[in-house]
Amino acid sequence: YMEEQFADQQDKARLVAAFRHEMRDIARQVTQFIRKWLDAGVTPLSLDEFLDEHQKVGAVLQRRIQVEESDLYPLY
Question: Please, are residues 75 and 9 in contact by the beta-carbon 8 Å criterion?
């Protein structure tokens, strides 16, 4: 919707497209994380690795939310 809305405003259209592409990459990362840990399960031996990856995924999502709120939401 937003890409169509800003079709005549190149800068805004590029920003919206970049957000869409980035979200696709983030979704892929989250899906890989979930699949990995559903398949492997978290064990006492893998707990530190799980927590490290969990923190990284959470940080990516937190950064995305902050950027959306500051850059994307004003376009609405």
Answer: no
Average pLDDT of the segment spanning 12-16: 89
Task: Please report which confidence band the pLDDT of residue 3 belongs to, taking 50, 70 and 90 as the band edges.
Answer: confident
Mean predicted lDDT score pLDDT of the chain = 93
Residue range 6-26: mean pLDDT, rounded = 91
Concatenating the DSSP letter of every residue in 10-62 gives: HHHHHHHHHHHHHHHHHHHHHHHHHHHHHHH---TTTHHHHHHHHHHHHHHHH
Count of CB atoms situated within 10 Å of the CB of 56: 12
- What distances in angstroms separate CA 71 from CA 27, 28, 44, 52, one per listed residue? 20, 22, 41, 28
pTM: 0.80
